[in-house]
Amino acid sequence: MAAPAATPPPLLEVEGVVVRFGGVVALAGVSFEVGHREIRGLIGPNGSGKTTLFNCISGLCRPAAGEIRFEGVALSRVPRHARARLGIGRTFQHTALFRSLTVRENVLAGAHPLAGSGFLANALRLGGRVRREEREAEETARRLLALLSLEAVADAPVGRLPFGTQKRVELARALAAGPKLLLLDEPAGGLNHEEVYRLARLLFRIRREFELSILLVEHHMHLVTSVSDRVVALDFGEKIADGTPEAVRAEPAVIRAYLGEGAAAHGDAA
Ligand SMILES: Nc1ncnc2c1ncn2[C@@H]1O[C@H](COP(=O)(O)OP(=O)(O)OP(=O)(O)O)[C@@H](O)[C@H]1O
């Protein structure tokens, strides 16, 4: 009889991660998982450790203890620059774009073939392959500009665009690199009600079309609870809840963290 097939590991496993900044414990042994094609919300009041956790996953911050695994690979062994190639993409709370370049150039930078081919190979003999990858990158950029409704501003310098549009450019740039996991840091920041609604539909579409998972840091509670399959909540660097959006919203520790002592008896979080 054939042995049962081994279950593949979750896409991302965060295990006992600890980060300290001097006397401040930013993460106090946090553990959770992100499944394949899952939209996972990450919530918590200001200073609860969400950005620090993103920084540990993307390699900007090194945990003092614990481990993070991506498709079973321990990230402590993977340098920061190699994590994008593994399939980890990210957007930032305050965007990190090339402001003087156009929207199209920024998106192309995310998909640039030299990232895959290597400068030396390009210089020596792989000209044909690089040209093909260049064409593919342009096609990817064209598709992403259409998906994110950026065609009309494709040739405008990013720095002159409204913040909400810049956030879409950053999302397009992150997608251009073909991530398996997308870390989104407050994508709804500065968006109006109608734009938040469109963002929710866009996140579902991105998951479906790119077959990826999303870890979403967001203060906009309605967005998080309407798009996430599961939500993890932090407070002062500790995990205080992990489960369905409904269960996490109703969790007394979450209500206390958002609304203060005494609130838990009265209702759910925001
Ligand atoms: N580079 C740093 N040096 C010192 N302390 C830091 C540093 N980065 C974060 N902290 C502290 O670590 C804790 C967690 O901060 P973090 O930015 O991860 O929280 P957050 O949940 O992302 O907050 P916000 O919702 O306001 O973005 C806070 O107490 C913060 O002051």
Automatic annotation (TrEMBL):
Gene3D superfamilies per the UniProt record, alphabetical: P-loop containing nucleotide triphosphate hydrolases
Q: SMART domains this protein is in? A: AAA
All residue ranges annotated as the ABC transporter domain in the record: 12-261
Q: Output the SUPFAM superfamilies linked to this UniProt entry.
A: P-loop containing nucleoside triphosphate hydrolases
Among CDD domains, the record links this protein to: ABC_Mj1267_LivG_branched
Q: Which GO terms describe its molecular function?
A: ATP binding; ATP hydrolysis activity
Which Pfam families does the protein's record reference?
ABC_tran, BCA_ABC_TP_C
Q: Which UniProt keywords apply?
A: ATP-binding, Nucleotide-binding, Transport
Q: Which GO terms describe its cellular component?
A: plasma membrane
Give the protein name, as stated in the record: ABC transporter ATP-binding protein
Instruction: Name the species this protein comes from.
Output: Caldovatus sediminis
